Amino acid sequence: MNGAGNLMDFLDEPLPDVGTYEDFHTIDWLREKSRDTDRHRKITNRSKESIWEFVKSLLDAWSGWVVMLLIGLLSGTLAGVIDLAVDWMTDLKEGVCLSAFWYSHEQCCWTSNETTFADRDKCPQWQKWAELMTGHTESAGAYVLNYFLYVLWALFFSFLAVSLVRVFAPYACGSGIPEIKTILSGFIIRGYLGKWTLLIKTVTLVLAVSSGLSLGKEGPLVHVACCCGNLFCSLFSKYSKNEGKRREVLSAAAAAGVSVAFGAPIGGVLFSLEEVSYYFPLKTLWRSFFAALVAAFTLRSINPFGNNRLVLFYVEYHTPRKTTQLGKYPVLEVIVVTGITAILAFPNPYTRRSTSELISELFNDCGALESSQLCDYINNPNMSRPEDDIPDRPAGPGVYMALWQLALALIFKIVITIFTFGMKIPSGLFIPSMAVGAIAGRIVGIAVEQMAYHHHDWIIFKNWCRPGADCVTPGLYAMVGAAACLGGVTRMTVSLVVIMFELTGGLEYIVPLMAAAVTSKWVADAFGKEGIYEAHIRLNGYPYLDQDEFTHRTLATDVMRPRRNEPPLSVLTQDSTTVEDVETLIKETDYNGFPVVVSRESERLIGFVQRRDLILAIKNARQKQDGVVSNSVVYFTEDAPQLPASNPQPLKLRRILNLSPFTVTDHTPMETVVDIFRKLGLRQCLVTRSGRLLGIITKKDVLRHMAQMMNQDPESIMFN
């Protein structure tokens, strides 16, 4: 027995994959934190041994900043490429630039020497498809041909997008933010942030947005940035071998994604902190800001809009679960919705153009040089004011026509957006939400403006709106409406306000934006506490513990397993279980781990061992350690048990045993247990009484109990 000491301790050397997690399982935050502390302690001790070890310790310390730099550079570059491609392919549905086919409409006309400011959207180099094919521009036949080709291009783009997602990367569909929020809480979804997902999401995002569907690209850009973060994590063992550290990087990557999506670095950091991240230490705050800054700087250097601005206007995501008959046929669903969208969108100029351009026009104020229908006011010929101080004026026929078109666009956007989300293509929620709010806000703004002009003696206008003054700014109403609608959908508050004023540069409007964000949250909360992210997480059954208070008066003994009339808890003993017993237990159960006790009679708790670690340890022992057979005794103690000489060699597995599993007593209030699970990120905790094991509470048990207390279906929690 003594001669086999080295063989019995073969687990003193780390084994591959021991300590890792299976797909659709939750990580153990405490174990990951402990492992990182041990790793850091070893590096610090070794740094004192030689100059090379000291240099390695410096490289380890700076690896986090290097990863942030790489994330910022790649996510900013991808966002710039996506913006340029979307502009070109969106305009491709209507025509082509003859001088350079890769130019969008705006780029084509601004490079022309024959373009005037008044007709800046018209130039001989840009031709619509009907003009190119038939030579006619204004005839009914030309309109029908342009209409047909617009629908055809939209169908082609959407079909290509859904086909690529379905065949190569199913995880590339939707926005990704609910899943990223779940992953950051500690859940494992293998492949969701993989290389194929990154590639297909980038390509299909361009196709989906260009098809004209009622969706945006900003939510998916957060997914793209997190894929970049996961990619660079694999280059550094500090992050690739520690799921807790990896999630610090992913939190910063989410901030970078929001930064390039909205052109708002500070808002990106606040969004990651307020909406997405589960664990956000101070160092992650600084690194998130650095990554967001680098990403925004990279995007600005690419200058996709040719105006030194970071974005044209802001947007985002979502995707609910499939329950309809049409949802069972994802390709057909996308084709049908795209066809309906394109057919109904083309006749209305406010739905035909890209939603970002629509929001930009709705936000703009009417200056003297504006040629939009929304600025068709009747001017007073006797007016002698500076061009930037135009008073309120009566609306002209163009404004009234625009109001009807905007009202139809509002109805169209609301209805079609409901059917667009959930399709198997990349899709964002922010742009449609902001568009709905901006349209409603602009309509209300114009109505209030005309009321103030024609009825300036009314009591609501009398004290602050004198005749001939610029009292009402409809563009501001659109901006506040966009913030209010988006806040109602997502329940964002602080980050929303910061993103909006970073986008518009309107710091002086921060008070109405704050009022809109708070009011929209109150109104939306009256209908239900869940934002769109939380609703998506619940619909998909992801094991996410939200931050709402648990106020029910139940105890740990009411939730723990086993319950009455259930089989006893599956446990391992410290020195009397054979390899065959362990393998049988693993085969007959699907539990993620097993408590280890002194004996089945005493039930005194020793520790906890993970199922995956047991499987890997026994497999490696059979391959590398002679004498390990099915009858070999598995022991978790420091010293080998006293066994007859005829017995086969025992197997020591103390190294994979967690000697300090988290425990609560059976009379611990569930309010405390829920807080412990939230703040420590536990996978499970053991329930004891005077050191004797009674049962176990898993994260899934907590979620089921919370759902039951809220009169919801506890079986809607699908994953472990």
Automatic annotation (TrEMBL):
GO terms for cellular component: early endosome; endosome membrane; Golgi apparatus; plasma membrane; synaptic vesicle. The keyword ATP-binding applies. It comes from the Eukaryota. InterPro entries: CBS_dom, CBS_dom_sf, Cl-channel_core, ClC. It is a multi-pass membrane protein. It holds the Pfam family CBS. GO terms for molecular function: antiporter activity; ATP binding; voltage-gated chloride channel activity. It is found in: Endosome membrane; Membrane. Its main location: membrane. Residues 560-624, 657-715 form the CBS domain. The keyword Plastid does not apply. Keywords: Antiport, ATP-binding, CBS domain, Chloride, Endosome, Ion transport, Membrane, Nucleotide-binding, Repeat, Transmembrane, Transmembrane helix, Transport. The chain crosses the membrane at residues 62-82, 147-172, 221-237, 249-273, 285-305, 326-346, 402-422, 429-448, 476-501. Belongs to the chloride channel (TC 2.A.49) family. This is Chloride channel protein. It comes from Pygocentrus nattereri.
